[in-house]
Design brief:
7-stranded parallel β-sheet, binds NADP nicotinamide-adenine-dinucleotide phosphate, about 40% helix, 7 strands, Rossmann fold, alpha/beta
Amino acid sequence: MLIKQWILIGATSDIAKALIQYNEFEPHALMLCAKNSALLSQMVDDLKVRKPQVQTNPITIDLSQIEKVNWLASVIQKTFTEPYGIIYFAGILDDDETASKEKIIAMNHVNFLFPMLLFEEIFKNPSETKCQSIVVVGSVAGDRGRAKNYRYGATKAAIDTYLSGLRQRLFNFGIHVLTVKPGFVKTKMIQHLTKTPLAATPERVAKDIWKAIQKRKMVIYTPWFMRWILFILRHLPEKWFLKIKF
Ligand SMILES: NC(=O)c1ccc[n+]([C@@H]2O[C@H](COP(=O)([O-])OP(=O)(O)OC[C@H]3O[C@@H](n4cnc5c(N)ncnc54)[C@H](OP(=O)(O)O)[C@@H]3O)[C@@H](O)[C@H]2O)c1
């Protein structure tokens, strides 16, 4: 089934913007959820010009406020009476030794707790939901904790494990669950970093995501070669891993 109604959560992310502009992504309806309402209205205005056939519905929400989960779930369920999919792009990378507890909590909320609680609400009764596909942008950082970003990596490992279980639970209902694991991507999230080896463009990642949705893949690394780099990293014995500096 080709899903034509999509909810993009974290719609102002550079990867989400690249997907919206990708010419093979042709939804009938888009619900765009983001924190920055001014950017959101700009995106809606731009969409009216570029893809006038798409019906857009902007929702302003701060995903660090997990008390908003039920509200968002009910807005989604009331809005969509036909099959729809959710792509969760939102993420925070606040990972240096000076990050405050508040920042670390917000990072855990946005990267893990909010999507987990949202999907638990949406899939309370999987046979009744119209949600037929969910996609979450995780990260290769969740595959193995590194000194440079292990607090962020832990949130991505948590969502990865959660999605693995959810995928198994929803399998018999025919609901598709895709975990996306990008390496570095040239977006505003990493513009402060000086070294971003093998960084991909948001356009490349968006295209990989769309192809994976169509092929109903379950886990993808993007670009593809990150799978093999992470395979090696995951299997390095801990005593060797300790000595690597990257
Ligand atoms: N860039 C990379 O190298 C890389 C690598 C692996 C995985 N990823 C993942 O890819 C996803 C997309 O990130 P990106 O690279 O496209 O970077 P990005 O452009 O900075 O996107 C991150 C998005 O998350 C949103 N967000 C953050 N906190 C939020 C909150 N409290 N409420 C609502 N929205 C919030 C941001 O909105 P505001 O701008 O309004 O805060 C922004 O739109 C993230 O999950 C990230 O972890 C990125």
